[in-house]
Specification:
The structure holds two protein chains of two kinds. By secondary structure, chain A is mainly α. Chain A contains four helices and no strands. Classes of the chains: A mainly alpha, B mainly alpha.
């Protein structure tokens, strides 16, 4: 297998592995969202749940990292098939998007934990 | 490929829903993370953002995003089942199950709002 095909295989595996993690995270997230919005959202309510909670910290950190892997790989196919954008420039842009998601996401996780 | 008959079937529409919901979620994520990051500047700042988000149009967009998340979850579980489990005869049932789960989550969120 050449290196390009190997790269595609790894991206496929990363997409399925992140999907499996996200499936669990999204079920928990949807449940939390539906529970939390009853009666309106307040900062006190959100932060009361997350501040100092190592469990929520670990959960959201995993959720963010899985999403930062999953979303750019998904967009990779969309950009190729719907916009005809392929090659190194697309992959560099998507890598930047992955880094942006991971950085903004971890910042948000720390913002509601600390 | 442009023959509409080749595309007008449940599996094709399941693919379209999965793709469009995925794009919406990917574009929404940076905004979502940025908004939660407002908490770094204190609870009042986050409350100000939450007050802004209580507008009807923002609420409607939120409902659309929750629906997109549920749809993408349902469609994604369908893809994983088709690829990793041997029961391919169930393909249409999986599409129906994904749609039903999406509707259930959408209704639950709408009622909770």
């Amino acid at each position: 297998m050449n290196s390009r095909a190997r790269g595609e295989t790894w991206l496929w595996i990363a997409q399925r592995a992140s999907a499996a993690v996200l499936a669990v995270c999204v079920v928990v997230h949807l449940g939390t969202v539906i529970y939390a919005v009853r009666g309106g959202l307040t900062a006190a309510e959100i932060l009361g749940r997350t501040r100092g909670s190592l469990g929520w910290l670990a959960f959201y950190a995993l959720f963010v990292l899985a999403a930062a892997v999953h979303a750019p790989i998904g967009l990779r196919s969309v950009l190729a098939e719907w916009l005809g954008w392929r090659g190194p420039s697309r992959d560099a842009a998507l890598l930047a998007f992955a880094v942006l998601l991971a950085a903004l996401g971890m910042r948000a996780v720390l913002a509601v934990f600390a | 490929m442009t023959d509409i008959r080749a595309r007008n079937h449940p599996s094709y529409w399941t693919f379209v829903v999965h793709r469009v919901s995925g794009i919406a979620l990917a574009l929404f994520l940076p905004l979502h993370f940025w908004a939660l990051g407002q908490a770094l500047e204190g609870a009042p700042r986050l409350d100000a953002f939450l007050a802004w988000s209580a507008q009807p149009l923002v609420r409607l967009a939120e409902w659309g995003l929750v629906l997109a998340l549920a749809a993408h979850l349902g469609g994604g579980l369908r893809v994983l089942a088709l690829e990793f489990l041997p029961w391919r005869d169930w393909q249409k049932s999986l599409t129906a199950a994904a749609a039903a789960a999406t509707l259930a989550v959408g209704l639950a969120f709408a009622l909770a709002l």
